[in-house]
User: Which sequence fits this backbone?
């Protein structure tokens, strides 16, 4: 006999194996429970991979970044890098306690939303900081970018907050058995909350997409203006200063904005399944790749050629450290060194000093071989 128990997030009246869940954030379409479980496994794998990456590169990060004073870029770097870690921990706690304690589940959902909001804003401010540094750190540019950031930040924070509140209310309505602990302020009609979520999610996506496109155009213009008259390949230069972050964010958000399915479940449910899974897979991958690309942008900004501009970037992002001065990305020559003599990077984008030592020893001149022992060329001592 088939069980007809209602599953979480299920729409009223749907039962058994044919249950179609209501997914907020994409639209009012129903999806099977197995697909949600698969996406949960994918999200867990992405979170574990990102946390593992942060753990394996923590020692180099402490040695190269945490040793000196605090800068704006260093704060943005740490928020961008560890925001997804906080979100992953909150997600894990929420999944473990979803059937146990309503209060803890709601608190972790709210904390997860705050971490996501802070990470997204940190990545966007990193773009602004990079553009500000590339323009020489002038005060007029600072005011201009500050106004632009306010025009973007205020609508984004408002829409994101409303979306998170809608998700929390839906979560409270979905949890059964402990509704006595739910405040009456959250007892809103489900249809009203769903409309909140759909409308404000659309507004948020339009805001982010517009901002990303504008920032990309401005970034490409700044890079082209900065390197005008020099014999540098523009595409290579854009990649070197973190253009991959701009382009990846615009492409993923464009896909999420225009690759959505209808509000109502279509007649061919397999099409809805495919579109839903593709969009959700892209969200999971973006949540992991975007912070990596953004932190790479901060590190690669130190590879500019102008000494004055490099000093400006160093003051804004990472202060000079003689032990870890080469945090930049190399071009990938045969010996692993770029045009500026940078050290080959190891795991996590940090300097691989052991490999660099091997390169130094291999480059030492050899003058002859006697009885199987290589004699190194020595400088003659100066006579007194």
Assistant:
């Amino acid at each position: 006999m088939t069980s007809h128990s209602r599953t979480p997030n299920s729409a009223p009246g749907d039962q058994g194996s044919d249950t179609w869940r209501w997914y907020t954030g994409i639209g009012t379409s129903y999806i099977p429970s197995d697909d949600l479980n698969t996406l949960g496994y994918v999200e867990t794998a992405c979170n574990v991979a990102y946390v593992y990456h942060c753990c394996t590169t923590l020692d180099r990060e402490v040695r190269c970044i945490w040793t000196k004073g605090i800068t704006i870029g260093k704060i943005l770097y740490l928020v961008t890098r560890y925001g997804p870690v906080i979100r992953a921990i909150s997600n894990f706690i929420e999944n473990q306690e979803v059937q146990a304690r309503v209060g803890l589940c709601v608190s972790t959902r709210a904390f997860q939303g705050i971490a996501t909001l802070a990470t997204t804003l940190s990545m966007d401010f990193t773009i602004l900081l990079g553009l500000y540094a590339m323009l020489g750190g002038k005060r007029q540019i600072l005011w201009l970018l500050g106004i632009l950031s306010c025009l973007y930040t205020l609508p984004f924070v408002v829409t994101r907050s409303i979306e998170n509140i809608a998700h929390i209310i839906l979560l409270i309505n979905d949890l059964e058995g402990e509704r006595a602990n739910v405040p009456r302020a959250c007892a809103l009609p489900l249809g009203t909350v769903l409309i909140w979520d759909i409308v404000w999610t659309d507004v948020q996506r339009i805001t982010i997409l517009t901002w990303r496109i504008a920032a990309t155009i401005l970034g490409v213009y700044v890079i082209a203006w900065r390197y005008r008259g020099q014999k540098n390949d523009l595409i290579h230069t854009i990649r070197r200063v973190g253009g991959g972050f701009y382009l990846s964010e615009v492409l993923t958000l464009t896909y999420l904005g225009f690759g959505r399915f209808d509000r109502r479940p279509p007649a061919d449910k397999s099409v809805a399944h495919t579109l839903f899974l593709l969009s959700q897979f892209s969200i999971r991958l973006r949540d992991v790749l975007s912070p990596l690309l953004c932190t790479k942008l901060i590190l690669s900004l130190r590879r500019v050629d102008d000494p004055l501009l490099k000093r400006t970037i160093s003051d804004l992002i990472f202060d000079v450290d003689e032990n870890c001065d080469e945090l930049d990305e190399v071009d990938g020559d045969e010996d692993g060194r770029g045009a500026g003599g940078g050290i080959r990077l190891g795991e996590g984008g940090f300097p691989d000093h052991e490999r660099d030592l091997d390169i130094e020893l291999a480059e030492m001149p050899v003058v002859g071989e006697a009885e199987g022992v290589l004699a190194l060329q020595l400088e003659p001592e100066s006579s007194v």
The domain at 16-316 is CATH 1.20.1070 (Rhopdopsin 7-helix transmembrane proteins). The mean pLDDT is 63. The CA atoms of residues 102 and 175 lie 7 Å apart.
